[in-house]
Amino acid sequence: MSHGDLSVVHRTGSARTRIALLTGLFTTLLALILAAPGTAQATAGGHMTHPDLDWMGSTIRAHEGSGRLSGDPVATPLASQTPGMDVSNYQGAVDWAGAWSNGAKFAYVKATEGTSYTNPSFTQQYNGSYNVGMIRGAYHFALPDVSAGATQADYFVAHGGGWSADGRTLPGALDIEYNPYGATCYGLSASGMVSWISAFSNEYHARTGRYPTIYSSTSWWTQCTGNSAAFAATNALWIARYNTTVGALPAGWGYQTIWQNADSGVFPGDQDLFNGAIDRVQAYAAG
């Protein structure tokens, strides 16, 4: 609307009409601002405004740093470690041949967040890692205050998060960590968080036949689930700790399946170690 259009608003109609026209003008201008390239936008899924900045561990470094807590028991590896990586749209088009040459044998790719975001780079990343020989899987960035756990599991499966028994596809992973948009535990009690994770995990299992790998940090897990041991018997653990030792694990788990040990390194994205040789990665993929 031009400055001349604004003068018409002042010259015509009742006060109610003028208010309605001004409200419409404000709404139009706001929509234009939000539509501008590079502008963070709220989505139909709730408060999500910067999903491309939400990746595995994006909130953990800020909250926990990298220091090992004094007195932490150290979980020892089961066997040799297999290097891998995890990526999101933040990395864009990944040089998969280069990552493979540098030794990455498996990869996880962000597929979804909440119930309204899909990774624009997913196809290049998910198929590209597979095509160079990696064993790959997808992960979901959880927003437990946006929708139910089962709803988000369904959205994940429908948008790249499924599993197939081809020996090259890892079960999907649930990335549950500090809330990038507000309250650390998403406004849920410890029991409420355990219920949400259970609903996601059970629905994913019902849809795919596999339980999702659970990615988190010990500190967040302790604070937001009350250090629940409810998942150790069914879900593999992917622990985040940026240090030379994995440190204490959440209750129930005697070892980690995957350790995210750095948020940068020789591979694009985060650096991961599978707790076992390559045949163990293959066995986990095969189910």
UniProtKB/TrEMBL annotation:
Its EC number is 3.2.1.17. SMART domains: Glyco_25. It is an enzyme of class 3 (hydrolase). Signal peptide: none annotated. It holds the Pfam family Glyco_hydro_25. Keywords: Glycosidase, Hydrolase. It catalyses: Hydrolysis of (1->4)-beta-linkages between N-acetylmuramic acid and N-acetyl-D-glucosamine residues in a peptidoglycan and between N-acetyl-D-glucosamine residues in chitodextrins. InterPro entries: GH, Glyco_hydro_25, Glyco_hydro_25_AS, Glyco_hydro_fam25_subgr. PROSITE patterns: GLYCOSYL_HYDROL_F25_1, GLYCOSYL_HYDROL_F25_2. Belongs to the glycosyl hydrolase 25 family. This is Lysozyme.
